[in-house]
Amino acid sequence: MWIVDAIDRLAPRLARYPGPARALFATTFVAVIISVGLYAVQYSSATGEQQEAKVSLSVTPDVLTATDALNADALNLGGETSTDPFEVELTYVERRGPDGVHFVANQPYLDAMRDGGPVDARAALSPAPWTAAQRPLVLDVKVTNNRGDTIFVDGAVIEVESSAPDLAPVPVPMTLHDRPRELTVVNQGWGSARDLVLRFNLGRGGAAPSADPPFAHTASLASLDETAAFRLDEGFADEGVDVAALRAAEEGSGTALRARRRAAGPFRLGARLGPDEVSVPLAGQLAYRDPASGALVTMRVRAAVPLTTPQGLGDFQPPTARYRAVELMPEGRGYERRVALSQSIEPGAVDRFQIPVVVARSSRHRVRVRISYGSGADAVTRPLVLDMFVPRLHGES
Amino acid sequence: MTLATLLDSLEQIAPRLEYYPGWSKAVFLATFVLVLVSIIVYAVLYPSVARASD
């Protein structure tokens, strides 16, 4: 063996080396022996640690959504790209900060708000839950096994160092059809906003108002917890609207169209006073203070503010009642289903209620709906065809 | 012992060294230095030792 041969050749000469050199050689020899021993003794645990290190883990926010996948159609994810930033589904993205990696909510409305706008006020009948933003943060875990053997992952632990509420307010401006001359602000954040000031311009004759200072009008609110509304009566009055006359016309029978047009002053109302025909464009700046951080936040806002309540609001209003469902027969002729109603409708007002209709199987029904009122009077619809679908596994077998 | 064998051994040993305890790594390093110094001392003193033995 080569090592024995080497020692055989070296050994006779070692005796002739000076004492310190021989001490050095002896020390080296002992050190080599110790090192080999240490290497051998700890080999098993070091190898184990090396094997453990071959399993690597990476966690990212799940980013594949129906709307951002390039091949969403091919994947049949069923997503539709919304043009309304508010309706775009919230996702989470990874951003690196000085204190580590952050998974940050990514949503066009939130991004626009953080960037100072402009944000467009939403027009609706009532504040509704923000369903597009009700998305969980999905941790996308990838485990790489570079070991030579199979591993079985049988658990995960999320070790939380700390949790703290995010109290930043998220104001969402809205215009509600039945709240004329108001800009409602819904707070989708979990902390309140203080000292809200809306500075704005109004556009006459459908013209877009200037979105830059100076602003002609100001409205303010002391605080915003869940919902609050800027009353813009003063701004409209400054523009020449007879707000008192308009309000009186709105509280009347709902048919005083001429009175409303007169009161609208420089703003032209459409012939039918539909929701689009009564709205006035607004552009401005919403400023508020975030009490949690003390920051003064400013964002540009655009809105179409209803100058008056639209006619035919019943088309949009929520139903005042929903009655018990009536069940039709899958097959049959000349039968009736009666529903007891209890609705009162003011003169000139519109009411809306719902009668659910169910059937045990997919079937077609030719019907007419008749309502009775007063003593023997009734009103009847034209013939209707109800093509009802019931999935077989949920229907009558 | 060929160079290839030596390199193969180092290739196998070196990645594992990282997973040894710190004090073991210190012993390995000290041994390595001692080996180097010993080789140098052996080589430097070799001519005079050879002359004396002749």
Characterise the protein shown here.
The complex is a heterodimer of chains A (397) and B (54). Chain A is 20% helix and 29% strand. Chain A is built from 8 helices and 21 strands. Chain A has a 5-stranded mixed sheet. Chain A has a 4-stranded mixed sheet with strand order 5-7-8-11, with no helix packed on it. Chain A has a two-stranded antiparallel ribbon with strand order 1-6. In chain A, helix 7 (243-251) runs antiparallel to helix 8. The longest helix of chain A is centred in the first third of the chain and has 23 residues, at 19-41. The N and C termini of chain A lie far apart (87 Å). Helix content of chain B is 87%, strand content 0%. Chain B is built from 2 helices and no strands. The radius of gyration of chain B is 16 Å and the shape is elongated. Chains A and B meet through helix 1, helix 2 and helix 3 of A and helix 1 and helix 2 of B.
Protein topology:
The complex is a heterodimer of chains A (397) and B (54).
Chain A: H1 2-14, H2 19-41, H3 43-52, E1 55-61, H4 72-75, E2 91-97, E3 100-106, H5 108-114, E4 119-120, E5 122-124, E6 139-145, E7 171-176, E8 182-187, E9 193-202, E10 217-224, E11 227-231, H6 233-238, H7 243-251, H8 257-263, E12 279-289, E13 296-306, E14 321-322, E15 326-327, E16 353-354, E17 357-358, E18 363-367, E19 370-373, E20 377-380, E21 384-388
Chain B: H1 3-17, H2 22-53
Order of helices and strands of chain B: HH
- Give the class of chain A from helix and strand content and strand pairing: alpha+beta
User: Strand portion of chain A, in percent?
Assistant: 25-35%
The radius of gyration over CA of chain A amounts to 37 Å
The poorly predicted ranges of chain A are 64-70
Main-sheet strand order of chain A equals: 4-13-12-9-10
Largest sheet of chain B: none
Mean pLDDT of chain B: 85
